[in-house]
Automatic annotation (TrEMBL):
Residues 5-175 form the CobW/HypB/UreG nucleotide-binding domain. InterPro entries: CobW/HypB/UreG_nucleotide-bd (IPR003495), P-loop_NTPase (IPR027417), Zinc-reg_GTPase_activator (IPR051316). This is GTP-binding protein. It comes from Anaerotalea alkaliphila. GO terms for cellular component: cytoplasm.
């Protein structure tokens, strides 16, 4: 049997970091299915070069009808590769409320050699209280999880951590909660799981999906300070921004959530072009202010993909 785990968590919670830690320590052949709402894959690039079977499904949620058929097909194909584990990294806005239905369809199609280990939800300890108040997907991810990892435990005090755990258990009293730092866990945590809620219809639909915008940037001399200033301005119109940029001749990975900009210098270029994906909170209306801010930094070297 192939162990199957779903990994959910809101934008910037630390799903990719968690998986990178896990994949470094786990024994056996591993498959990874990465799902992103944006048109272009950013997280998938992070895993390229590792010894695993990688499948990427972009431009929507795997729980939306727009991708669900491909999602089920991909799980079937991964099972044929004789893997010990398959992990699904969902989009940050995914609503996994009908994961049981997905598993049922797999069984109906004769795909019966998966042992489902549950949904591991990664919770951003710093921003959870803000997120859960306004984002239904955060509540749904917790309600339909078996394991909850409160990430960034080192960045919050005991009182805040206690409030987070209390709110998580109010949503799902049977989930098992663990505090973690930078997504690192002991492997036996995967076997200490609670119970998720009963299936319900997902809120992920074609109509409700956020608009993703892709910007290509021609390589040029820009400072880190200028890039940070641009991303800070653009983030006012986005749930999240991520991608790859060349800064003063050196490749960087860029990530921005809630105006918090992270620029990580890379040892080598991992993306053939400099580009950013904006998950817009305002639809197409965000294009004008984001492009105006980009022109202040990159001149005419920045253009949206049309």
């Amino acid at each position: 049997m192939t162990k199957l785990y779903l990994v959910t968590g809101f934008l910037g919670a630390g799903k990719t970091t968690f998986l990178k830690h896990l994949l470094e320590r786990i024994d056996g052949q591993v498959g990874l299915l990465v799902n992103e709402f944006g048109k272009e894959s950013i997280d998938g690039i992070t895993f390229q070069g590792q010894e695993l079977e990688l499948v990427e499904l972009n431009n929507g949620s795997i729980f939306c009808s727009c991708l669900k058929t491909r999602f089920i097909q991909a799980l079937g194909e991964l099972l044929d590769r004789g893997l010990s584990y398959v992990f699904i990294e969902s989009s940050g806005l995914a609503d996994p409320s009908d994961m049981g239905k997905v598993l049922g369809v797999l069984e109906q199609k004769g795909i019966k050699d998966y042992a489902y280990g549950g949904n591991i939800v990664i919770i951003d300890g710093v921003y959870f209280e803000r997120e859960v108040a306004v984002m239904e997907s955060v509540t749904r991810q917790i309600r339909h999880s078996e394991i909850a990892l409160v990430n960034k435990r080192d960045l919050i005090d005991e009182k805040t951590y206690g409030r987070v755990v209390e709110k998580v258990l109010a949503i799902n009293p049977e989930v098992v909660v663990h505090p973690v730092v930078r997504g690192a866990i002991d492997l036996d945590v995967l076997d200490r799981r609670g119970r998720s809620a009963e299936d319900e219809p997902t809120t992920n639909t074609w109509e409700s999906r956020p608009k993703s915008l892709v910007m290509h940037v021609r390589e040029q001399e820009v400072t880190e300070e200028a890039v940070r200033r641009f991303l800070g301005k653009a983030s006012a119109h986005c749930f999240r921004i991520k991608g790859y940029l060349t800064i003063q001749g050196r490749p960087h990975k860029a990530d921005c959530v809630y105006g918090q900009v992270e620029l990580v210098e890379l040892a080598e270029r991992v993306s053939p072009t400099d580009s950013l994906v904006f998950l817009s909170s305002e639809g197409l209306r965000a294009m004008s202010p984001i492009l105006a801010a980009a022109r202040e930094t990159f001149g005419d070297g920045a253009e949206f993909e049309m």
